[in-house]
Sequence to fold (254 residues):
Amino acid sequence: MATQLKPSIECSKEEWQARLDLAACYRIFDHLGWGESIYNHISIKVPGEEDTFLINPFGLLYDEVTASNLVKIDVEGNNVGQSQYMVNKAGFTQHAYFHKHLGARADAICHVHTTATMAVCSHKDGLMPTNFYACNFQDQIGYHDFEGVTVREEEGERLVENLGDHTILMLRNHGPVVMDKTIQGMFVKMWALQRACEIQVATLGMGNPNIVPQEVVDVHQRDISVMQSQGGAGVFDFEAWKRKIDRIDTSWRD
Fold:
């Protein structure tokens, strides 16, 4: 595996590692087909700093994102890093509000427009307990009615209110926001949500879905939480995918 011995920009060791992980995450999303042209966002809080986070440069495709060209901004929208790129306003408004008000629960955030997740967000019943992965998320998702593109700060209050105590917010007719304390945990949660939505779309296309009873969902969630602890909340998954993209292209480390 390729290694990065020295940061190509001036930053702390901890920030450089966060940049590497975030750049890798963009490349993984791209490889999995989760990109949306130059739109959508993944962000991560800068370790050891208050109210600053890293996000993708507006205008670049996910396979063009590198550790050094990520944009460092504060929650007020100021570019406090060395990037010459601008930030998409919708990405800043939504992510900044979550980073500012949710603490460690939202240290890593992604928002996607994948076909499967948008389809489920556009279904009146949202995510249904029709498959293994969907059962992971029952009663652990918030829903927010569509208000148009998220560029108004005042919508942030309603986003947080509708999220509640959860870490996934399905923006109806739009797409999901997935968050976690770590980028690894966020990634594996997004991966499982994508699979849940893909399978639901396929199942509903056949008609007459078999709905898993709540008592079975409860047992499933109890047991899956034990199994997830063995994987370090997505660490094994994330590292495996980093090895995958390294074999394809190591430029994300630049």
